[in-house]
Amino acid sequence: MAKGVWIVAEQRDGALRKVSFELASTARKLADQLGEEVGAVLCGSGVEAMAAELAKYGVDKVYVADNAALEPYTTDAHATAVAKIVKENDPAILFIGASAQGKDLSASLVGKLATGMATDCTDVKVADGKLLAVRPMYAGKCFGEVVIDAFPQMASLRPNVFPIVECAKAGEVVKFDAGLGEAKTKVAEILKEAAGKIDVAEANIIVSGGRGMKGPEGYGILEDLAGLLGAAVGASRAAVDAGWRPQADQVGQTGKVVSPNLYIACGISGAIQHLAGMSSSKYIVAINKDAEAPIFARADYGIVDDLFKVVPALTQEVKKLLA
Ligand SMILES: Cc1cc2nc3c(=O)[nH]c(=O)nc-3n(C[C@H](O)[C@H](O)[C@H](O)COP(=O)(O)OP(=O)(O)OC[C@H]3O[C@@H](n4cnc5c(N)ncnc54)[C@H](O)[C@@H]3O)c2cc1C
């Protein structure tokens, strides 16, 4: 019988991604309710040292595939390795991050495991011994509860939504053979973002600009504020389509889904497709000269004024606070 709550840990450049700790903490909570163990699959090259770190977040057993062919990440190698160890151990629940890598991996994995999956979940519970996954639907207009009638019950969890809880554990490390055949894909080149640039998908604070920025040069004031706050700069699709910002910065239904602690929307009207990408942010601040802009209906704090006046004033106040 399928048993245990497992996660697929995500690592890059020699470090575990934050979402791995969110997955582990969530798995621990559910495993305690079910009276079961938490397992984690960790794949890569030279990753064994990271296993102990996962245990701190409640993982009982870390299954490690340490193999040069698992670095850098490719879908087929990682999906093959994870599917193999999952099939051998038959966990009841399998969580994966709804990050770019997690989304890529889970699509292949769910096929290899011939199971069902709830994507981009913002809550997960146990009901009658089964996983109940909650996910936003219709661009965040409502939430659906999903039950999966196959094992493992797979769900991808939206990054930055689930709390990280440390619990001193001494998890066991179990090495396994990834069972890789000849590689079907090879990474030819990795194009990295400029050093120091924070990815909107992982940022704790995002200062985002839309068509109201008037042009690419308008973003200078957002960069200044973001620099002080240690924030990423995001953009609406209108700004990206106009060529003012790179596509990687786009927030929304066809951009990235973000859940920072603070989202400052400047000159963004709040179209449903934009809200779909940022409405699970903890605090939303909107700066817009139109008091009727829909973004104010979702904002915790709103400033109705010209952003070119408000943002520099805000930056000055933050400077004073930080001095
Ligand atoms: C299938 C589909 C997918 C989409 N996906 C996305 C997506 O992923 N992300 C996304 O963002 N959109 C997406 N869109 C587009 C979306 O519908 C909106 O067109 C877009 O979000 C509008 O961007 P905006 O708010 O920057 O521009 P606008 O709607 O033009 O709003 C600009 C705002 O700036 C304010 N403003 C102007 N000047 C100032 C000033 N000086 N000071 C203060 N405020 C000012 C205005 O009052 C206005 O509210 C999608 C649309 C479709 C159909």
If classified by CATH, what would the architecture of the largest domain be? 3-Layer(aba) Sandwich
Shape: globular
Runs with pLDDT <50, length 5+? none
- Look at the helices and sheets and give the structural class: alpha/beta
User: How far is the first residue's CA from the last residue's CA?
Assistant: 60 Å
Helix count, DSSP H or I runs of 4 or more residues: 9
Order of helices and strands: EEEHEHEHEHEEEEEEEHEHEHEHEH
Level-1 CATH class name of the largest domain: Alpha Beta
Q: Roughly what is the average pLDDT, rounded to an integer? A: 95
- Rg of Cα set: 21 Å
What percent of residues are in strands? 25-35%
Question: Can you describe what's shown?
Answer:
There is one protein chain. This protein folds into 2 domains: about 5-175, 3-Layer(aba) Sandwich (Rossmann fold), CATH 3.40.50.620; about 200-320, 3-Layer(aba) Sandwich (Rossmann fold). The chain contains 9 helices and 17 strands. The protein has helices spanning about 20-35, 50-55, 75-90, 100-110, 220-230, 235-240, 270-280, 295-300, 305-320; strands spanning about 5-10, 10, 15, 40-45, 60-65, 95, 115-120, 125, 130-135, 140-145, 155, 170-175, 205-210, 230-235, 260-265, 285-290, 300-305. The protein has a 7-stranded parallel β-sheet, sandwiched between helices. α7 (about 270-280) links the parallel β15 and β16 (about 285-290). α3 crosses α4 (about 100-110) and α5 (about 220-230) runs parallel beside α9 (about 305-320). The longest helix has 17 residues, at about 20-35. The structure holds flavin-adenine dinucleotide. The site of flavin-adenine dinucleotide (FAD) has 28 residues, from α6, α7, β16 and α9.
